[in-house]
Amino acid sequence: MNRRPFLKLTSAIAIAAALTGTAAAADTIRIGAVAPRTGPLAGGATVTQWPSIELWVHQVNEAGGLNVDGEMMLIELIEYDDQTNPGETIRAVQRLATQDNAHFIIAPYGTGLNLAAAPLFDRYGYPQIAVSAITDQQGALAEQFPNMFFTLGTTTALASDLVDVLEGMRDAGDLGNRVAMVNVADAFGIELATAARPLFEEAGFEIVYDTSYPLGTQDLSPVINGAAAAEPDAFVAWSYPPDTFGLTEQAMIAGLDVDAFYTAVATPFPGYGARFGPAAEGVLGAGGVNPDSEAFQAYAAAHLEVTGAEPDYWASATTYASLEILAQSIEAVGLDRAEVSDYLREATFETILGPISFDENNSNAAFWTVGQWQGGVFRGVASRDRDGAVPVILKDGWE
Amino acid sequence: MEILITGLLLGGTYALIAMGLNLQYGVARIMNLANGEILVAGGYVAFIAYTAAQLSPLLTIFIVAPLAFGINWLIYRIMLQPLVTRAKNRGQLETDSILATFGLSFIGVGLMLSFFGGDYFSYSFMAVPVELLGNSYGANRAISFAMAVVICGALYIWLNRSRAGLSIRAIATAPASARLVGIDVKRLSALAFALGGAVTAVGGALISTYLTLDASTGVVFTLKALIIVIMGGVGDVRGTIVAALLLGVLETTVATLIDPGLTLAAAYVMFLGILLFRPQGLFGKKTT
Q1: Chain B 180-219, CB below 8 Å of chain A: which residues?
Q2: Are residues A38 and B216, on separate chains, in Cβ contact within 8 Å?
Q3: pTM to 2 decimals?
Q4: Residue A397, SS3 per DSSP
Q5: Terminal-residue alpha carbon distance, chain A
Q6: Strands A234-238 and A178-184
Q7: For site-directed labelling of A26, which of A345, B60, B63, B235 has its Cα 20 to 30 A away?
Q8: How many percent of chain A have pLDDT more than 70?
Q9: Cα A53 to Cα A45: distance, rounded to the nearest angstrom
Q10: How far B39 CA lies from chain A's nearest CA (Å)?
Q11: For residue range A18-36, what is the model confidence (pLDDT) as tens digits?
């Protein structure tokens, strides 16, 4: 092989790349995004994470960019698919930091992937405004990784607010004392079930059925039949998307007759309401929003227009809010990452969810915890410091 | 009784998942790792036909089957035939086909992502209870079981009665000798591969009526199919059916009587047991 033309070609490419690189650096802000496009969490990320990023970049660039020290800079988005594999998430963050020279990196999707990437965000000094990372370890994590921030709440808050909602229904005389609880055998499901168990007992509930099932179980009828045989008044499932759909369908088929029916992740997805229609009425789920707020309605309309899909009724809006927070920080202090992190700790941000600020644990203390399908819309029924919660209703059959 | 019926219904699902792979692996000798993607694609077509045109998945399968047959025939002719021709022995063909179809599965996922997006697709079709011997079961699962019976029965009869079927079994048993007695191995291998793809896609269309799928879920089904085919014995329709039903009943029994958390463990214990005591599978013949 003749080496010279090859060398010429590669050096030409290298020079061209360097030129375009410096040209781009002058007037764009490079924002990295890494989240699943494939793998087990791809379905959730496709509903919750990617469209909000797309919408935000579209809106910022449409408005002429972000104002950095008096200069309007457009956003250049660099995307990576991590295949729901923590190793790939880490590799992508490293690549964004060292080769793409991203100014900022949007936090990954999912608790595990966020935790996996946290040391790298920390090492390269990137602020990590995590959304879909729900854990009780926020204080410890913030201490270890001072630039990691949390927006969507804690495990215990999700569990204890559901217990509170059910307790309220019971004390009003609408609900009996018997609870059937199941969970997916995965970090998320196990952590929530472990948190909920003592809370139910403290509140005086009797847990009449308590079991877990493996991720990806293809027939959930034994789970629903087992729960039904225990004659519960309330059914609670700490579930993931495919099983959220499967458990609901099986409950309809088996005619599981409860006054409160709760499934966790994906219950606030528009696809859930579309699939089950009127049968979804009264189903409780994790999260929620205030769908009547003007800010949310404007966001949902723009989301549909730009991405062709509806946002979910929980983490979609929070994902968008986390990007609003990033944008406001950049406009306030510029592209210096350390200064942005300091600003994140101190300032209060105006978002579509209302004001957000971070406490001493880098946590946003105002978030939605429990929602319910009412009249074809998933409405928040319990929150920490958010306005617009509506009263909870009883589940009245599956018709 | 309830356990038995629930288990058999689940077993029907497993038979649908595994039957196509059995044809492809047993006869065409292609260990098709893109099997799950074909299944998910079948489910997508059913989903789109149902949501866009209110077309029942029971009718959609008549579109899905010839479509999948054609696509799989092309895949075999263009991509896999050269591997078969150049392979010196069965081991080499297996390695090559595993690598090639592994790549194919990524292409499948990528194509589905770009055409349909990564969102979950799920719809409600016949999600109503049917009464069987005093207990209620999902009508969609029952229908899908009935279809599994029809498909497996038809395959079994075809393989044992028709000339083409007998030739295919001859290839499965002894590919080198089959050529000597005037069987067109090339053509029939392509036929078996395409037929396997069609069965898998139809299975996907039926399964989509009660399972929530997305573009990336294919690999789950490939793995399940692999386990069932190996348990039943490669190239034997009866073996796949029996293994699928056994697995369904076992998982349901464990889930109901012991703990749903142990179904996966139970399935692997059964798999391990069969590998230990009958490595050729329940109905497989010992390799000579």
Answers
A1: 210-212, 214-217
A2: yes
A3: 0.84
A4: coil
A5: 74
A6: parallel
A7: A345
A8: 93
A9: 11
A10: 15
A11: 444 444 445 799 999 999 9
